[in-house]
Design a protein that fits this description.
4-stranded mixed sheet, about 65% helix, alpha+beta, Four Helix Bundle (Hemerythrin (Met), subunit A)
Amino acid sequence: MKKINHFLLFLFLLCGLVACNEKADQLAQENENLRSKVKNDSLYIAGLSEEMDIVYNSLDSVKVMADSLLQTSDMIRQQKVSKKEANLFINSTMSNIDSLMQENKSKIAALESKLENSAMKKGILQKMLDRLRKDLSEKEEIIVRLNSQINQLEKDVEGLKIEKRNIVTKLVESQSKLQQKEQEVDKIAKEMAQKIKQVEELAQTNNAGYYLVGAKKELAKKGVIKTRGLLNKVDGLGDVLNEDEMHRLDISSQTLNIDIGASTLKSKDIVLVPTRPDGYYLISQEHGRTYLHIINKDFWKKSKFLVVVIQ
């Protein structure tokens, strides 16, 4: 009856270990999928930021042209340029401004289309595009008013100067808002980079193995291993396993070498806890030391912990 109970207990433990391994493989796959998605999202945001930069640069050009219109109005007031020449310059500049604003509207529409057709969660990106479109719409209204005011240049040059300066101020304010949007995009990119870093750190944690070498009596006393019977036969890992007190290594490597003691050790005096299949490791004496050579990555499937017990 006792043998049957032991056999059932062994089957229960074996099923638990298999389930843990399957769960670990599933978590590893989920981590890889998350890492890939975060990287793709980061690249998507970087591309969107680059396209926004084009719009920002275009608005810079609008501001430069608006400044030139302000300078022209000052020159008319000071009679440093003829009205004919000024009108030609103003008409040409306003035409260029209208063209740029139309291009900006098209580019924003294209950005919105990309975001709409993307499988990526929109959230903040959609709000940023909405605010950007709103700002551009306000600028378009400002440009319309600017064109109307320029038509009144011959009637009231001084009044036009004041109005255009007000418009330039609004353009500068709008530019400041757009710069804030750019900072928000940069913040999102940094957050995505931080997430990528966290995923990479998680992957490193999943690839970590821990080992400890020590005498059976000392390890049993610390609770690192369990023993049974009058002969204190090793009976598996104990309940006290502290990763900080163990050696850490990267178990993703195909082969690993662990120094377990002097060359005087005999194979019969060395016990691996938990036990591993013979084909997964070798024990050899080299240069006055005894080494455990792990030659198969499946060595760690049973447990990420290894205690080398010297009897």
